[in-house]
Specification:
By secondary structure, the protein is mostly helical. It is built from eight helices and no strands. Bound molecules: protoporphyrin IX containing FE (HEM).
């Protein structure tokens, strides 16, 4: 039952994180007109009613699920660390919630983004097979690199540096924003290598469908990343890029156990 609740809570967290990213990117003016002149100083953006409502409903669903799962795992003496981490992440996110309306507050953007990832990771861990507390090194590398990419990508967005390196593969005029882009690309290559390594293990254990699904998410991730950096960025595209990263991260923590 805890695993079912964790899958439900994890799905709601994925949706909540993606919606929060969309609102943050829209507030920051990603893809505003005339791009990039208005970037970082766009017209004020208020989320539409459906987004505000969906955000509230998802947040309540996540909170209720995490509190229930934490109480249950405490009584059953199983998954206490992951459930405690999820509870701490929810409390932290609720505490910084009122500050998160400004997309340029670097520390708050990062705490919000990574808090959402910690919550997702804890729920993905609870959703995974019980009694297996070790992780395949390849899956651990995928999860760690995805988390690093989230921190680095969040910094690119909080510093309004999405347009700092539109050339591929390297930036013609390196500056602090471009350096963040180059680090992001290097980490993405490392993640793809780790994913290939993990996929081999998945194929060996008869999980070909999972390996295929991960390859599809990784390919979509490359497309959305390149389009955001080099093409015409937009809040929906950037939110989809973050969502792909979250899927890889959650899959590694839930399926990479042994
Ligand atoms: C599989 C590899 C990749 C992963 C897991 C990944 C993950 C992420 C994540 C989680 C974010 C933060 C999203 C947010 O702010 O909500 C991000 C941002 C970003 N990524 Fe990637 N990324 C990958 C590959 C790439 C590639 C190849 C490029 C471009 C060549 C790219 C370009 C960007 C840019 C420009 C941002 C900042 C804008 C934004 O926040 O969406 N990414 N990435």
């Amino acid at each position: 039952m805890i695993r079912v609740a964790a899958v439900f809570g994890g799905a709601c967290t994925l949706a909540l994180n993606a919606l929060s990213a969309w609102i943050r990117h829209a507030r920051g003016g990603l893809g505003c007109e005339p791009w990039p002149a208005c970037y970082g100083a766009p017209a004020p953006f208020e989320p539409p009613l459906w987004a505000a409502l969906a955000h509230r409903v998802l947040a309540v669903a996540v909170l209720a699920t995490v509190v229930w799962a934490a109480a249950r795992s405490w009584r059953r003496r199983t998954g206490r660390v992951a459930a405690g981490l999820a509870l701490a992440a929810v409390a932290g996110l609720a505490a910084i919630g009122p500050l998160s309306g400004d997309p340029g507050r670097e520390a708050v953007v990062l705490a919000n983004l990574l808090g959402g990832w910690v919550l997702l990771g804890a729920l993905a861990w609870l959703a995974g097979p019980t009694g297996r507390d070790g992780m395949r090194p390849s899956a651990l590398a995928v999860a760690a690199l995805a988390f690093l990419l989230a921190a680095n990508g969040g910094l690119i967005s909080a510093r309004f540096a999405v347009d700092a390196c539109p050339a591929l593969p390297l930036c013609p005029a390196p500056d602090p924003g471009a350096t963040l882009h180059l680090a992001h690309r290097a980490a993405a290559i490392a993640l793809l290598a780790a994913l290939g390594w993990w996929s081999r293990a998945l194929l060996r254990t008869g999980s070909g469908a999972a390996a295929l699904a991960l390859a599809a998410v990784a390919a979509a991730q490359l497309v959305t990343g390149v389009m955001t950096a080099a093409g015409t960025p937009g809040p929906a595209l950037a939110a989809a890029h973050g969502l792909g990263g979250q899927l890889l991260f959650a899959a590694a923590l839930a399926l990479g156990r042994r």
